[in-house]
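Predict both folds.
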Amino acid sequence: MIRLEKNGGLWRVTLSRQEKANSLTRAMLGELADIAEAAGSEDVRALVLTGEGKVFSAGADLDEARAGLATDPVWERLSGAIASLPCLTVAALNGTVAGGAFGMVLACDLRIAVPGSKFFYPVMKLGFLPQPSDPVRMAALIGPARAKMILMAGAKVAAEEALAWGLIDRIVTLEDVDATVAELTADALAAQPDHVAGIKRLFG
């Protein structure tokens, strides 16, 4: 359900559970965290997260969420591992992002999304708290009020509004996703790993 492709300094990680809208199980989250942690110890210069089908991820698998996954520390382990990577990280969003799937997306350096994508995090309605780092990272991108619109007012944000807010960085057609990823990662892939890491450290 998680596919990892390695091409030199580029790692591409794909969520592959289309029949369940790429909803995330504990096993999938653990595997994603393992990959992110492994990337931190290898000469990876760019890591790309994407999904198959029309949805990036619907968030937690509902059955597992009811059984405790919604509050499992594996979410923070994953987003923390991505955020601490010394390489360039890109979320290439093939569709809608919901709930806990926000964590790994917010932890990336860059976010691109296809037209028609929506962004929502219905923790207020579902009775859960968001993962601790998610509101902080979201507010850093779009400001506290807009973050509260998503997390507290249950706003569903369309791609165009997400771009205007700064939640995503570009809207690209599905056919252009690969070309855009290639464009965004080209300089990092051509550089030495310590140079990539050195520039990223400057952002704190």
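Second protein follows, with its predicted structure tokens after the sequence.
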Amino acid sequence: MTGLLVHSARLITANSPGDIRDDPTGWVRIRDGIVTATGTMEGWAPDGDEVVDASQIGGPGAIITSGLVDIHNHGGATFAFDGSIEEILQAVDAHAAHGVTRIVLSLVSAPPRALEAQLTRIAAARGEQPGILGAHLEGPYIDSDRCGAHDPAALHPPEAHELARLLATGVVQQVTLAPELTGGIEAVRQIVAAGSVAAIGHTGADAGTTLRAIDAGASLLTHTFNAMPPVHHRVPGPIGAAAADDRMILEIIADGSHVDRTIVRMLFAAAPGRVALVSDAMAAAAASDGEYLLGAQKVTVRDGLATLHGTSVLAGSTLTLDRALRNVVSWGIPLGAAIASATVVPARAIQRDDLGRLEVGCRGDLVIWDSALVPRAVWRDGVRIVADAVAHNRPLAAG
């Protein structure tokens, strides 16, 4: 099988979140969907490969990175991931144009039978689209006082039999829950035992309860700072407990509206190598303003800001992950650390060491960027999936 050789651009990747490789001129060879070699300068030969000069695509200052990994995303291009298989695939394709080669499809709280039907459709879509890693159940086991845009009527404490049915679909990658709910810690153990990731979010948990959940196997904090108690110098809460614990990875929505840029910088400093950029995108991402649904809830999008209809409650975002990357770099995060937070760190969060890195043995997911950090071409498993990935990003409502 003919391989792919991409060369002549700045190559930024990571062996681990804290081991960032930044070569001024690098190259990558991919065969049978896997990275087989990388190098610097002109130390390559075609050897029957399709040869791509990254500098001709990305221009002066072109950059090669691994494909982005979005582990918290509800949809895009007007479509939500609780929709039909065709709608799911179109939304995934929309995010691919923004450099996302692997994606976890997030579902908001809903009745159990509705969730099972949604998971069945996601499983079918995953069979057609290798970029789909699985599903993220963001609820229904969350705190009703901190439910954000979730339907309060759908919320309840975890029930072992119900959770087992959802996990048995084989497509649940992660579950967000509030560990302080009755049965919450037991649910964390059940999720982890099934091979899924237990995430803490939409929670009023104190630091002690958060630590008990981490000890039980929780390893991810869902959209840090949002829908949870703030940090207090005598009451650290879930954010302080997670930031201080090396077992935890912390999501952040870097759109300038969900979290102030100063706090984003503070989080990167407090938890180096453990911050995962996520979009928390809803159907209006890569689409226009207007009226949408997030689950059963009506959402108004105005100037790119999504809120529950008639309120100021944030309802996901219209962010794409490439724009999140550009944002944090413009806010002072070093480029290598920013790229790691959108590639290797989220891949590590879902226990996929073969993703998010351009190292031998990893999946052949690759993006060529121009000097403004706009994706210009995208490959998944060594196959070009977006030929002209110029991102059309509208200004954010804030930031």
